[in-house]
Amino acid sequence: MSSRSWFQSLLMFAWLTIGYGVIQFIVAMWAGSILDQIFPSTTPNESIVITNDGEALIQSYALNYSSVQIRRLDGTPVSERAGLGKSFVQPTSYIYLAPNEIPVNWNSRVTSFYDFQKPSTYWYFTIVPGHEKTAFFVGFDRLSRRRVGYIGLDGFSQQEPTMNQSFPLPEGGFQGLRGVIATGQATGPYEPYAESMELQTAPMANAGLDVVWILSRGSIYEVQLGARTVRKVLDNHPELRFLVQGLVTRDEKNYLQLLARTTEGLLTIDPKTSETHFAALESAPIGFNETIYQIPKHGRVIVQSDRHPGHGIKQQVNVIWMDDDGRMVRQADTEIFRYVPPLQQYFDWSVSASCPIPLVSVGAAFCAPAFMPPEPNLTYFGSCLKLFNDLKLWVMTSVIVGLISGWFCRRRQRDVFGVTNWFWPILVGICGLFGWIGYICVFPLPARLPGGTWLPSKPEPARSQGVEIYV
Description:
This protein is of the alpha+beta class. The chain has three domains: 6-38 and 343-442, no CATH class; 44-87, no CATH class; 93-274, no CATH class. 25% of the residues lie in helices and 30% in strands. It is built from seven helices and 22 strands. The chain has helices at residues 6-38, 194-200, 343-354, 358-367, 380-390, 392-415, 423-442, and strands at residues 44-50, 56-62, 68-72, 93-96, 110-114, 121-127, 134-141, 147-152, 155-157, 167-168, 180-182, 211-216, 219-224, 229-234, 242-250, 253-261, 265-269, 276-280, 288-295, 299-306, 313-322, 328-338. The strands form five sheets. Strands 5, 6, 7, 8, 9 and 10 form a six-stranded antiparallel sheet that branches. A hairpin with a 2-residue loop joins strand 8 (147-152) and strand 9 (155-157). Helix 4 packs across helix 5. It is extended and about 125 Å long.
């Protein structure tokens, strides 16, 4: 074997294994990118787009955007498409009709807001630790970073609100911002960027810049962050499930509307006067999205569609037109082809080809949960098994490659070098293909003798053939 010391061989093996692994990963990603350019996917994908005049169109395009076609809901192609893309309106609200019980993810536990005051305060809407059914605001001075106080049901206070003084969250859990909206942009669990929010937030004719509305167990509360006051806008409506923001333009002024979803319809609320208008609207099935488009001078359009249509299926879509007063004008059903790339499959195959190392794949399955947010109703071992199941293709591929590499190493150790210990076969096995490449570089094959045997690394001295007499 090599004349290097054991430590030198191990150090060289580690450097070669890591180096070959990095090179393989770069080459695999580079090759995949080239193949994607040479053989682009031509699978069509379709979506609903809404124009400025409220017309619903079907946009069909390949995943590489090599061709885009637009047709009406009745299948008539739109030939005059010059400048049409600029007339599409963006959705103003999303409603995800989620199951009743949704665990609180980490991004939903803290949501930050900005009060547009001088000097300003950063307010964080925080779910009470250990009690995921209530939440309150906690404010920090922008310059000194010191806590200025709290806002709960009873308004501003220097003391942390109790659970009875905190805002009760919607029954069945709280996910994302489905029950909290604001005129100013919410920034999730991060510090607000004051300058950007001041530039991007447009004033409303019926609402200030620093107002937050909270859906709380059948009631809607208005929180004035600047004035640090709380007002109940709506009460005794236990059927309310979601609260989103709407926008109406009248006389060149923007008016904010609160859109509260029930199982039977859509409740439109004026946040200033508390005036309400109910429009009967059948709720989409659980697991569907409702996307709301506000059309200037044409009311709004609601598109109901499946949130997870699969990798490539025909998807039923319901389009509903409503006027500014919330009355349904008409509706239409259509069918589109929704293709969602199987990202999990792409990940499995790419990582299996670029990193067939049992130490990494198995280690990721059993160590990664320690650095991930805990999942409700799952122990650490349960989280490991769940991640192991998600990565099963990568783990199986790397383990098979590792066993084969370890077997080749064991065979060379025993048959060529005459070594019977298992250190190097086990090490090569857990390092997989790159471990085998590093091993054969550290311990290259010796020369073969004419009889087919291997030249020993330390040849034995020649034996004497007779009696030698020295004079």
